[in-house]
Structures are given as structure tokens and as C-alpha cells.
Task: structure prediction
Amino acid sequence: MTVPLRFQSAATVDAVPAEDAARGGAACHDGRPRVTALRLSAFATHRRAEFPLGPLTLFAGPSGSGKSSALRAYEALARLGGGASLGEVFPDPGACVPERARPDAGRRRGFRIGCTVDGPAGVVRLDLAVQAEPELRIVGERLTTGGLTLLETALRDPSRPTVQAAWHTAGSSPVTRAPLPDDRLGTALLPLRVAGRTDGQRQVLAAAEQMVVALRSVFACDPVPRHMRAPVPLGAGRLLPGCDNLAEVLWRTRSECGRRHGLLVAAVRDGCAGQVVDVLAEQVSSGAGQGSVPTARAVRAVRAAPAVRAVLDRGDGLRTPLGVLGDGELRYLALALVLLTGPGVLEVDTAGEVPEALQTLTVLADGFDRDLDVRQRDQLVRLAARMCERGHIRLVGAVSDPSWASGADGVAVVHLEP
Result:
């Protein structure tokens, strides 16, 4: 399948042909559904745009070219696929409306996004129209495959908080009609509404489940170095999007998987200055790293959950706290940890009823190269390419300078211009 590239402003794609990216790379039939194209028909700075997504795709361009908004749209689709409401996903919907979009006679403005997913059920497309003003609601949704419409919804009565849905049945009646809420993704609700008695209904279920599985396993990650420097209490050990609790996760992963931890140490050795023998977390006293006297409540919290800090073991008895490292080293270490772990370690809302072997984790990394020096940048993209080549993880990132990534093995670069 060839995905047409029609961009608002002369965007081009390097390294992976559009038809290969649309099929998800070489290993597209291993049972793992994956998003192979992102459509921004009318979203923020984008109009009539369709971006093919390969295993490792980097959006590149100057500030204002729409890199972050593309990742934001992808994350929004993922959260809707996981069952979140429109209000949760779009707290500021007006910012998603194209800047020059004019309201209609009813003062209504909105935006349109969608995606394509490839997997065992074939190539499935989802397109969504959202009204942002004067009231946030879904006004249209379409799920299709091979030219066949499996689900279509439309807003018939603006006074009611529902849309009229019709899904493919291919039984005694060609479609089934029923109202669905106008603040939820209809595709995610289909497994609760479709009986699966006819071949048509089973096709609808297979396509909807493939779309939801592909969308839900997404980890939007943007490490914030200033939040990674202080000790943190021990908890569930699942990495947060800002990587604030990096030390807590290292405390867990070092003992749970020696092989992956060894790969992390090797990656940190390649990207951090000085000798690195190990990367670990150690317990600290309740007042360590604090500049003020802790309150009684804070003392009780520390007693309940001991605090830990992350350090680099230099091998000669010296341990360097991560708190003294530079921003580039911290972001490099955090992103390497994300690439070398999985959904069980990351704060990800996966499809729990589907085995992990049949899911693909997609990492969204805004500012992928932010604060990194040349060595860190090159080492990190090589690590990402190796991990994405295996098929269990994909990465969609944003970079400001595409020159270093263009031509790199396994990397597709989407060039955007304001």
C-alpha cells in the first residue's frame, strides 16, 4: 500500500520508502498490530497531512514546524483508544484547531485526526472529527478496511450527548444502528456492543481490537533533568513520563533483569564522561539531599517508603550521584533506560487481555536530541535503531536538526517546514 504524502508545507521523508513504512517495516506480519501512518487532516499547524511511520521515525524541523503537535495528536489517539474521555485528552481543545479555521454559521470549529494500523486483521483506518468550539464533542468517526466501512458515526441531534452509530453486520440487516456517547472513541466501545454472531460482526470486532491494541501501548516520554536529581521514595517502580523516579526504577530493574541492566550499563558507558562500571540506586537517609528540616508528615512518609538516589559506580570506590551530572547525561541515561525496558517497567496503559508478545510498545520522544552532545546523540539513535529492529518497540521522536539522522541505518526522517 502506498501512502500519499500531501503536506501543508513541503515535508519529505528520508530513509524508508513510504510503502515500506506504511507496512511497518520488514516484520509486519508477526502478529503485532502497529500504527503505520498518522493523519492530521486539520490539526494545529497541519492540514491534509499524512505521515508514514516506520519502526523508528523522527520528525525534524525548526521551531513552529509542527513536530510536537504531531506527537501530541498521536498521544491523543492513544489515550482515546485506552478509553479516556475527550475532556481528559484535550484540556485546551482550541489549541488543536487550525489557526485560520473559520467558524461556521453555528460558531462551530474543530479538528480532524486519524491513523492507519496494520496487523492480522489487515490494514485498518481510523478517522475522527472533533468539534472543539463551542462545545467539545465527537461529531464523526469512521473505521474502514479495504474500502469497507466497519463503523461510522455522526452527530444527528446537537441537543443530546450522543452520536448515531452504524456498524457493519452483514446479517439479516446490513448494519446495526445505536447511539454512542459523544465524548468517547466509538471504536474502543465496539467490543462491548458487537455480539460477534455474523462474519461481518466478527470482522468489525477484529478491526476494532487491532486498532485499540496498536494505540494503547504508547509511552510519551520527555525526561526533565531537574526533576531527576533529588532522591525519591520507593514505590511501584514504574517509570513516569518525565523520568522523575529514575532512581526508583533502577532500584528495581538492576535486580530483576541482569541482562538488560548490563546493556544499560554498556550504553551509559558509551554516553557519559569518565569510567562507568555500574549504574545503581542506593538508599539515603531521610534528610539526604534536602535543604530544609523535614516535616513530621514527610518523616512518616520516608519511614513508610525509604528514599533512594541513583549513582554511577566509577569502579575505584567512588560513586557519583546522578544529581551532579549534566542535563545531557541525564536525558541520555533516561532515554536509554526507556529503550531497554518494557511496558512492565514503564507507566503504560497496555491492553492487559492481550499477551505482551502480541503488542508493540511505541515510545513518543519529544525533543529526542535535546541537550545531547554529538556522541550521546549518535549512540542513542544507534541504540534506538537496534531495539526497534527487533519489532517489540517502535519510536516516534522529534528533533531540531535532521542532518545527523538523515541516512542513519533504520531511521526514517520526516522533514517539516513552518
Residues 199-216 form the longest helix (18 residues). The longest strand covers residues 122-133. Confidence is low (pLDDT under 50) at residues 1-10, 15-28, 288-295, 297-302.
